[in-house]
Specification:
The chain starts with 12 loop residues before the first helix and ends in an 11-residue tail after the last helix. It is mostly helical. The chain folds into two domains: 8-67, no CATH class; 74-179. It is 65% helix and 0% strand. It has helices at residues 13-29, 46-51, 53-67, 74-88, 91-103, 108-115, 125-138, 145-179. It is globular. The longest helix has 35 residues, at 145-179. It is built from eight helices and no strands. This is Carboxymuconolactone decarboxylase family protein. InterPro entries: AhpD-like. It comes from Novosphingobium organovorum.
Length: 190
């Protein structure tokens, strides 16, 4: 890792408050993978965000906005996140969201195909659309009009916007993880 693991006991003031907010948000919304280590320090993308709170705090606010009462179904969200992680090749993100995708009901063969960069053949219509929309967004360039129209018709205008911001957020997560060379934890589930 390119950054030292931040010791939360050394944080003060606004940085300490950000740590507490992140820790409580992780405990509430991010289950099934290691995001808090045995010393109660934050790992994964949270360590870089805490290390550079000028950038990390606004990203964390977006995380909370997208985690608070999402309108998209859990499997659809996880397909979007896994596709983004597979395209951007972020190991920690894939490690974490493979676990979440299992919890949200995606089958092992579906998850395996997605993390290998392939579109599973056994997706529902809604899940297939999620795969196509996320693929188009994560690979860059303009999303095909047909894909956007179908996403808006299927998920609603607000749902399509949520989807776009979700992929954008996880692209940021992946870039953070890759840029700082954040490792996958050596221990299993949290």
């Amino acid at each position: 890792m390119r950054l030292a693991q931040l010791d939360h006991t050394t944080l003060t003031g606004d940085d300490r408050a950000l740590y507490q907010d992140m820790k409580s948000g992780i405990e509430k919304s991010f289950k099934g993978f290691v995001a808090i280590d045995a010393n109660a320090d934050l790992v994964g993308p949270w360590n870089p965000w805490l290390s550079f709170p000028k950038f990390g705090k606004p990203v964390w606010e977006l995380v909370k906005a997208l985690a608070d009462a999402p309108t998209l179904p859990g499997p659809v969200r996880e397909i979007a996140i896994l596709v983004t992680g597979a395209v951007l090749r972020a190991d920690y993100e894939l490690y974490a969201h493979i676990h979440v995708a299992e919890i949200k009901g995606l089958a092992d063969d579906q998850i395996r195909a997605i993390v290998c960069g392939q579109r599973p053949t056994n997706l529902t219509r809604e899940q297939g659309l999620a795969y196509d929309f996320a693929s188009a967004l994560a690979q860059g360039g303009e999303v095909p009009e047909l894909v956007y129209r179908q996403a808006s018709a299927t998920f609603g205008q607000d749902g399509a916007a949520e989807f776009i911001y979700l992929v954008g957020l996880y692209a940021m997560v992946c870039v953070t993880l890759s840029g700082f060379k954040v490792p996958v934890p050596t221990s299993d589930y949290a």
